[in-house]
Structure formats: C-alpha cells, structure tokens
Design a protein that fits this description.
Blueprint: H1 2-24, E1 50-52, E2 55-59, E3 62-66, E4 69-71, E5 80-81, E6 84-88, E7 91-95, E8 98-99
Antiparallel strand pairs: 1-4, 2-3, 5-8, 6-7
Length: about 100
C-alpha cells in the first residue's frame, strides 16, 4: 500500500509539473483569430464590477474563445488591461488581459 501511495504522489507531482510547464509555453498561430459575434452583457452585479471583454484562452495547443464577464477588481484602484494579439517572428500570440 505504501508503494502505491508513493507512485500516486509521484504521478501527482509529474502532472502538476506538466501543467505548470504548459502554462509557461506560448502558443503561436499563423493568423490572428477573429472574435465571434458578441452577445449582450448581463446586468452588472454592482457598481464596483468591471466588464472583462471577450478574449482568447490557450487550450490544447490552440486558443478557444472565452465570453465576457463581470469581475470585481482584486484591489482598490485596480484597472483591467484588455488582452491583445501581438506579432512574433513565429506568428501571432495572444497576450491575455490582466489587472494593473
């Protein structure tokens, strides 16, 4: 039983390492991906919430579209910097939005 537990711990560590490694990799595509039609925004939950516009998220070696949503800033004075495509020597890469 202890051998099995050690194997499971090793498998978990390797899985965590591969997830961390995949997050560090930059996905590059030949052309910028076009944004699908945007739907109407839902009602704002509070005056404090900020609209986070639709953007792309990496998944499986490419990008998938993530719809917009309302979010509360993580700290006072934070402002949302929208994501954008940037050109690299290998193609286009998405720079995700972030709080500043």
């Amino acid at each position: 039983m202890k051998k099995f537990a050690k194997l499971m711990a090793l498998a978990g560590a390797l899985t965590l390492f591969s997830v961390i490694e995949s997050k560090a990799q930059e996905i590059v595509v030949r052309e910028r991906m076009h944004v699908p039609v945007v739907t109407a925004r839902p009602v704002r939950p509070s005056p404090r919430h900020v609209w986070i516009a639709e953007e792309w998220t990496p998944k499986g070696g490419t990008y998938v579209f993530k719809g917009g949503y309302w979010a509360a800033p993580p700290f006072a004075g934070a402002r949302w910097v929208p994501g954008h495509w940037r050109h690299t020597p290998r193609g286009w890469a998405w720079r995700p939005g972030h709080w500043r």
